[in-house]
Model the fold of this input.
Amino acid sequence: MGARSMLTRAAGAAVAAVAFLVAATASSAATDFRARVTWEPSWGAVGYRIHVKPGGADWDAGTDVGMPPLQGDGTMAWTAVWTLPGLPLGGDVSFRVTGYDAVGVEGDPSNEVVVDEASIVAAITPIDLSLDAAQWVRVAGTGTFATVAVPPVDDLPGEALQLATTRVPPTVFGVGTPTTARLGSDRSQVGWTFEAPAGGSFMMRAVVQDSLGRRRKIGWVSGGGMAYVERNVPTFPVGDLATGAVASFTRDLGADMQVGLGTDFAALEQVQVFGTLDLRRVRLQLEGAGGFTSDPPGRSGEAPTTGWRSNTKTNVTQGLYDPDLGRETIQATLVPGQALPKIQYPYKSSVKMIAPFRQVKIPTQGFEEFSVEAQLVLADGSRFKMIFSTAVDDTTKVVSRSQAKLPMPTPSDVPGSPWDVLILRYATELAALQANPATQGVVPSSPFAGVQGLVLRGGFWIGPVAFEERVR
Done:
């Protein structure tokens, strides 16, 4: 009844190289080792245990993983974490699987799959991509880029890749690396260190391969560059990052791909940078390893007050500065006999602007016949439309599948200002509908993941829309 491994010695090393990672704890006194083990099921087994032999230690008692679901190729797989002694490990790390029957008796162990210590050490060593201009290639727009000398800061190199363009917005110009050959890296963390002009906009992007073998793009934007979106490219707002000084930005590709694309990360093929900035370093790393950890994600993201698509050119004004708010605004006025003004973000309805935040905050100074429609993204990749409306009778209409209509919340006063703040809690409202689906017909059971796009209709005066409370 032994669980026979599907892997030969050589194939086992390949699977481990793709699936394992090492992450140092804050104290560095111990190390977490994560591995994905794959095996063929054995007849008569009602569950399985994965055993590990770290370094020169003995086999452990095993981790009971039950009966994982069969994969498409008929095998089983499980990812688990073991706490090992700090590096060096003192030897290679081995894995094996045992099956057990209905009374808990274990069968013979599978063959041993070994991950050598050198591979583990290599996995926790960050990879810094070269900033040599010859290693990069133009991927969009018009501009110049070259390696320039810069003052060293801390452990940063004394050189940077300088991007410059006279185009507006600057994010239409970008470069990427490597130039021709695909990177093919299994590193799931990407960190950018850069200097950007104060008030400037920029975008970082990764070309990735997902678990289905498809090459996909995923991006992160800051400032007005958030309006730079492409068809079927999920784009996340970076959030609160200072410009005008050296800043760092790190992303977990696996987590963002799950939210934005609904697929698993397999490999990083290329990194791309857009905008006018000095790129100081691009670093690749496995999650949390070697002291290189993910920076806390931006607490919020913001849609600019330009870049919205409007259905009218006469009674919608974008980018209107208001001294009381101290920001640019968007104003839509009702005109008798005309259709309600409508604005839409992103500009094209066919693009994906994934904002992984739970709620939307809108500064407002009065509105009438006003509605905010959001296309929600759920964890299973499906979509659900939610509309907040001031028209009470509109909220009582029969709703269609994958749609909910709710009354508009009362805005909160901003002391000493004519402006109010409207907060739309999409994740909270979706959870309430899921708890009482009869109020809105068919409501999906999948958890909230983010907002794909916004549509505003009616007469309103609003400031920049902020996305808040990041989904973890």
